[in-house]
Every structure is written in C-alpha cells, then in structure tokens.
Amino acid sequence: MSATALETEVLSRVAEDYEAPHTIAGDIARDLERSISEAEVLTALLSLARSGLVQAYVYEPSSQRYRAISASEASAAQDPWFKAKRASYAT
Predict the structure, then answer these.
(1) CA distances from 29 to 6, 10, 26, 48, 50 (A)
(2) Other CB atoms closer than 10 Å to residue 30's CB: what's the count?
(3) Could you give all domains of the chain from N- to C-terminal order, each with its CATH number?
C-alpha cells in the first residue's frame, strides 16, 4: 500500500493506543500545520483498516472493553476507535 502523508501520520498516532478521529485530529492538524477535520482522519483510519494495517473497534461500556469490528462496520459505527496491528508498528 502506498500510504498518503495523512495516513502515515494517522498510523503513527494509533501505534501505541486506541484512538478515535476526535482524539487525534487536533494534534495532527497542529503537527502538519494545516487544517485537518475529524472526517479526514476517519477516512484515513478506514483506509488503513481496509488495508489491514489498523484494526477497528467499538468500545462497550458495559464490559469496559474494546470489541474488534470490520472496516465496513466501522464506517457505519457512531464512534469507532482504531489501533495499529503489530505488523504495522514498524512503518
């Protein structure tokens, strides 16, 4: 996969912890010194999930755990979270 600059930046943000577009959009915008919307971050995360570099999740408050979901489920989820798969940490 040939990642865009935004996808590469987003991937670095999800390497260590679960993140959602709203939790990292502002930091990415600051670091790239340009306006970045949560929607742009979500698009990058979904692309990374479809390519297999990132796993999508939903948080379940009742069990206080993240549950893995597919990229297509994440695109329809109200508040998806993401975390890089171990194999993608080296990118």
Answers:
(1) 10, 11, 5, 19, 23
(2) 10
(3) 5-85 (1.10.10.10)
Candidates 43, 42, 40, 53; CA nearest to 81 is 42
Q: How do residues 34-61 score in pLDDT, each as one tens digit?
A: 999 999 999 999 999 999 999 999 999 9
- Compute the distance between CA of residue 24 and CA of residue 28 in angstroms, rounded to an integer: 6
Taking the C-alpha atoms of residue 12 and residue 15, their distance in angstroms, rounded to an integer, is 5
Side chain identity at residue 14, one-letter code: V
Q: Alpha helices of the chain — where are they, by DSSP H?
A: 5-13, 21-32, 38-50, 71-76
The rounded distance, in Å, linking the Cα atoms of 18 and 57 is 8
**How crowded is the C-beta side of 61, counted as CA atoms within 13 Å?**
1
Q: What is the mean pLDDT of the chain?
A: 91
pTM of the model: 0.89
